[in-house]
Amino acid sequence: MIPLGKIEGAVVDTLKAALAGAGAPYALGTIASYGGEFDSDDVGKVLAKFPALLVSFSGWDEPSDQGADKIFDLRFQVFACAQSLLNEGSGRAGASGKPGAYQLVGDAALVLDGSALGLDEIGVPVTRPVAIGAMQSVRNGLVQAKRLAVYALDIGFSVRATRKARGQPVGELLTVNVDWDIPPHDAAPETLPVDPPRDGSQTIKPRE
User: Fold this and answer.
1) Which residues of 18-31 are buried (b: 16+ CB within 10 A; e: fewer)?
2) Quick one: DSSP state of residue 112?
3) Which string of DSSP letters, residue by residue, matches 125-159?
4) Which helix (H) or strand (E) holds 103?
5) Least confident of 20-24, 128-132, 179-183, 202-206
6) Which CATH class is domain 4-180?
7) How far is CA 86 from CA 48, 144, 182, 187, in A?
8) Rounded Cα distance, 73 and 154, in Å
9) pTM for the full model?
10) Angle, nearest 10°, between helix axes 4-19 and 101-112?
11) Under 8 Å CB-to-CB from 131, ≥6 apart: which residues?
12) Which residue from 155, 121, 149 is spatially nearest to 135, judged by alpha carbons?
């Protein structure tokens, strides 16, 4: 199993260690996992988090085999977000002692480049450290309406996952999750409970 939540948390923690707390080069409103901020109707709540660095899992490429293990090339995005009441240009470049999106995305790239994110410490072997990828501006209704400066930085790195034997070989299956609570046989209902639809992915549109 690949603990994507913990891995995303490790990206966040690496950024926090360098850019937040005592000795930080500037004050940030938020360094956290992306939580749908660019699709939110609560603009005030979103802006209260700025300037911000927000991290989101993007996906992985087709895994490769390494003996009994699988190598996963993981992709994440780091959103550098800023706003200035002066104008959009000040949001990009910074003003009044606050960092702009340019500085945020550049600093995030320098912090993460070549990092192993401390993943070995949580039992996730890293086979390739963080490599910096493309960077592009983010444009959607909220970003344009509020003259926000938002840039998305692509990062990628590779981790190794070991298949867990479960009886006979089952091809490429890595894990099986069973979520039903089965009642005692003497009190079984007519039908088993059904999970609600799991469409929980959040739509973000960092590229146009």
Assistant:
1) bbbeeeeeeebebb
2) H
3) -EEEEEEEEEEEE---HHHHHTT-EEEEEEEEEEE
4) helix 101-112
5) 179-183
6) alpha beta
7) 16, 15, 59, 66
8) 13
9) 0.72
10) 110
11) 113, 114, 155, 156, 157
12) 155
How many CB atoms sit inside 10 A of residue 49's CB? 16
Given a contact cutoff of 8 angstroms between Cβ atoms, the answer to whether 148 and 83 are in contact is yes
Q: How far apart are CA 102 and CA 8, in angstroms?
A: 23
The C-alpha atoms of residue 64 and residue 99 are separated, in whole angstroms, by 40
User: Beta-strand (E) ranges in the chain?
Assistant: 30-33, 52-60, 64-66, 69-82, 94-95, 98-99, 126-137, 149-162
User: Cα dist. 57→3, 31, 174 in Å?
Assistant: 12, 15, 20
Tokens of 79: 């959103």
- What average pLDDT does range 176-191 have in this prediction? 43
Largest CA distance in the chain: 70
Long-range contacts of 181-188 (CB under 8 A, 24+ apart): none
Q: 93 near 102, Cβ under 8 Å?
A: yes
Which pLDDT tens digit goes with each residue over 154-167? 999 999 998 765 55
Secondary structure percentages of the chain, helix, strand, coil, to 5: 25, 30, 45
- Using CA atoms, how far residue 62 sits from 131, 168, 169, 174, in Å, is 18, 24, 21, 14
44 confidence band (pLDDT: 50, 70, 90): confident
Please report, as a single letter, which amino acid is at residue 21.
G
Q: Which of 92, 76, 203 is nearest to 137 (CA)?
A: 92
